[in-house]
Amino acid sequence: MRRMAAGANRTGLIIVGLFLLVAGLAVLAISFGLAAAVAPGLTPDAALQPVAAVFALPFSAVIALVVALILAIIGIRWLAAQVPRKDSAKPLRMQEDARSGVTTVTANVVAAAVEDDLEATPEVVDAQAILRGTARRPELVLHLDVDERADIDSVIADVADRVTRNASQALGVPLSAVGVEVAIARSRQRKQRSVQL
Amino acid sequence: MSARLFRARPARVVPAVILAILILVIAVALGWAAIAAIASAGSGSSALSDGVPGLSSLGEMTWGSAAIIAACVVIALLGLIFLIIGISPGAKRVIGYRMQTPEHIERFEVVLPTSALSGLAAAAADSVDGVSSVRAASNASSTNVTFSTPVRDNDEIRRDVDAAVTQRFDSIAFDRTPTVKVRAHRRQA
């Protein structure tokens, strides 16, 4: 339920993939003599001297260093983007009129209360909640680990009718979106929960 | 309408991490070569080939040499693989759940990851008499249950497991109830 950099990953993969594919195919075209019709000098038996000459130009080491730095920054930023983001709401401003004082509630406080409320349902083994959006348009994203023999329909009905209603009443507005991800708790071994006679 | 609350398709984290590390490795190698060239020549105007002796031998190779062709085939294949991974949507990892939206919520979305289907199916199969162990694998539309049993004539157990898992799934209001396939493995007790 945390957010991943899915869009950035796919864009990056497509750009790098296209670049490598086109570069590889272009050199292969030269290697198999297909480029000789377009550029007369580029036959398979021609040497790579023009390419090697680029690396022998003055200042090419400094340029390579700059390119290396740029690539390193891209690589590090891309790696850093892989950390899943919670994207919680900024502290909610709950007051009617800012002249008479400001009342703020942090998203984690509301989320922790919702988690406790969720865990009051007997079948729910563990729960995580994230509050996103604003005080006027709050969004709740919930992850439930329910027992494997639980009645899923009744757990979801309980979330829909009780937990989200409590959250909505606490915030004083209808929830603009609620997402529930139901997973099956598998922490305990089956044998530990069964009684053998 | 904003984006869906849960991403149904994979985010391609592993290929992205591999590619990012590859870019970092190239950056480090290139930076190393550049610093070596600058250090050996002692001036900022030095050429990259001063520090990397292999670069001058590159000029003696021909475009048609086997090493160049092999390297380019690998590069083009890698490019094709990254491109396909980036474009193809990938397998759905969640299954939708049908639910009436209560009046205090504007948009209500309930999903179960495919791993939850496997967990439910395994638990249901495990409750059948005669089953000694269960494995289940799921995608968004079907679940494969494989159980092992010491019983030789296990057709009836297989039918019971199928019934138990199907009944479990039918009791849950999925958007589209996944199909169930059951296989039995006989194992000596």
Automatic annotation (TrEMBL), chain A:
Keywords: Membrane, Transmembrane, Transmembrane helix. NCBIfam families: anchor_AmaP. This is Alkaline shock response membrane anchor protein AmaP. The chain crosses the membrane at residues 12-39, 51-80. It comes from the Bacteria.
Automatic annotation (TrEMBL), chain B:
It comes from Brevibacterium aurantiacum. InterPro entries: DUF6286. This is Uncharacterized protein. It holds the Pfam family DUF6286.
